[in-house]
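job 3f2a | input accepted
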Amino acid sequence: MGVWEDGSDRTDINAVARAKSGQDTFDADKNSVVEAERCAGGLERAGYLVTADDFGKVKLFNYPCVYNDAPYREYKGHASHAMSIRFSCDDRRVFTAGGHDRAVLQFKTKGIRQDEEPPAYTPPPEPKRTWGPIDGGKAYGWIEEAPQFSQSKRRAPPKASAGAASAEEALRLKFEAEEAARLKEEKRLQDLALGPKPSNANYGESIFYSRTGN
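job 3f2a | predicted structure (214 res):
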C-alpha cells in the first residue's frame, strides 16, 4: 500500500520526505498563508515524495501516495542502507545519508514542462545467446556472445622505442649478473660451513710420526 511494496516489512523504509511543491507556504512580509498552486499533473495540492530504505534505494513517488502498487522511480548510489533523506529548501536537490557506507549523496531534480515531450528512451540491445555445451561439455546452457568492438575504435598499442629496448636489455643483464654473484656467494658460505675436504690419498689411513734421538 502506498510506499510499501507487497511483502515488505514496515521497517524497510527508514525515512520519508515530501517536497514543498504543492504545500501551502507562509509569507512573512505579508504575514499570510499563500495557497499552493496546482501542480504535478494539475492536481490540487499534489506534489512529490521520496523514501530511503534498507536496500540503499531512493524512490520518488507522486504525492499523495495512497494507491496499491504505486508507480515510482528508483535511484541507486548507496552501498548500504540509506538512513535519512531530505529535499533542499527550493526542491532542486535531494540529500541522503547512508548507514555503514558513511556517505552523503545528493540528487538533482529536473522538472519537465507539460508542453515538453519526455526524452526518448532507447533500450540497450538484447544480448545474443545460443544453446550449447558449457563447463567443458559437462552441462548445457545459454552461451552469451561477447560484444564485438570495431577495430577502428581500438587504440593501437604504443611501439617500443630503441631507447626503451636498450634500457630493458641493460636491466636484464644487471639482474643476471646479480643473480650469478648471489649464487656464487651462497656456494662459498656452504663450503666454509662444511670445512676442508679430506684428501683421497690419506683418507682412511693413520699416519704416525716417530722421533729418534742421537
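job 3f2a | The first strand starts at residue 13 and ends at 18.
job 3f2a | closed
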